[in-house]
Specification:
This protein is α/β, with parallel strands linked by helices and 286 residues long. 43% of the residues lie in helices and 11% in strands. It folds into 2 domains: 196 residues, TIM Barrel (Alpha-Beta Barrel); 72 residues, PGBD-like superfamily/PGBD (Muramoyl-pentapeptide Carboxypeptidase, domain 1). Bound molecules: zinc ion.
């Protein structure tokens, strides 16, 4: 029973996954939680089981704040080097530690050092994991200054990508606020691995690209995934489009007008290609 390895998730929605390894940390985890809460962003945390055992209350705090928790081995050993029996033991202990601290095991494993092979995947499957979650955006935050972390993330960030952070380094927490702000300024939303998978489950978000349609207020209301994409982008940039329900109502049109005024565009309340460009979103006809 092998598990799937994912490096990115082919979402259509403007969603990017934010992940943290190696915690929890008594100082840096609470700080990260504060910053994430300020932006209303949820992330996926991969904890080594031994730290989960030692810092169970902090783990619970992460969970209660709405974040997602996966396993990062038990003692942060390279699983490939342990043989099947050793890898199985590490991974089953990791699941037990999570179960004790959070009440549930996790479908998500991030192997320490990103090291895996068929044997590791098989052992992980036997221990109840379904995905080995890798990454494709690595700012090497443990070895970089905050400014370099920001630059590196912005260079690579795109829908469906998985960003790798570590919550045990001061420069990561120092960069985090600005990283989140800059990413949302681009019209992207940050979320958990499950949020990305869930957006795939929405059939209206999948399918072949179709031509652009201009969005505007009319009766009956225009509706569809393109409307939702615009609403999420507005929301991410601090404009209030009302409910993120995929319906182009009064409040969404108002939010677009405010956005247009701020960017010296005519405040028509219609989402033209130009508005999409400024919002940093690509939309398609419903
Ligand atoms: Zn690690």
């Amino acid at each position: 029973m092998d598990i799937k390895v994912v490096r990115k998730i082919d979402v259509v929605a403007p969603l990017t996954a934010l992940t943290f390894d190696d915690g929890p940390h008594p100082v840096f985890t609470p700080r990260a939680l504060e910053i994430l809460a300020k932006h209303g962003v949820n992330a996926t945390f991969f904890f080594p089981g031994s730290r989960v055992e030692r810092l169970g209350e902090l783990v619970k705090q992460v969970q209660d704040a709405g974040h997602e928790i996966g396993a990062h081995g038990y003692s942060h050993k390279n699983l490939v080097s342990l043989g099947y029996g050793g890898a199985y033991e590490e991974l089953s202990k990791a699941q037990e530690a999570l179960k004790l601290a959070t009440g549930r095991t996790s479908p998500y494993l991030r192997p320490p050092y990103g090291a895996y092979n068929q044997m590791v995947l098989k052992a992980a499957g036997e221990c109840g994991f379904q995905y080995s979650v890798m990454w494709n955006v690595d700012p090497r935050d443990y070895a970089s200054a905050p400014g370099a972390i920001l630059q590196s993330v912005l260079k690579d960030v795109a829908p469906g990508n998985i960003i790798l952070f570590h919550e045990v380094t001061p420069s990561t927490t120092a960069a985090l606020d600005l990283v989140i702000k800059s990413i949302t300024d681009r019209g992207l939303r940050l979320g958990t691995i499950t949020e990305l998978f869930d957006s795939l489950g929405k059939p209206e978000l999948a399918g072949e690209p179709t031509p652009f349609r201009e969005l505007r207020l009319r009766t009956p209301l225009m509706r569809g995934p393109d409307v939702e994409t615009v609403q999420m982008a507005l929301n991410g940039r601090g404009y209030d489009p009302g409910k993120l329900d995929g319906m182009y109502g009064q409040q969404t049109s108002m939010a677009v007008k405010h956005f247009q005024l701020d960017f010296d565009l005519e405040p028509t309340g219609s989402v033209t290609r130009e508005v999409c460009g400024r919002l940093g979103v690509a939309i398609r006809k419903a």
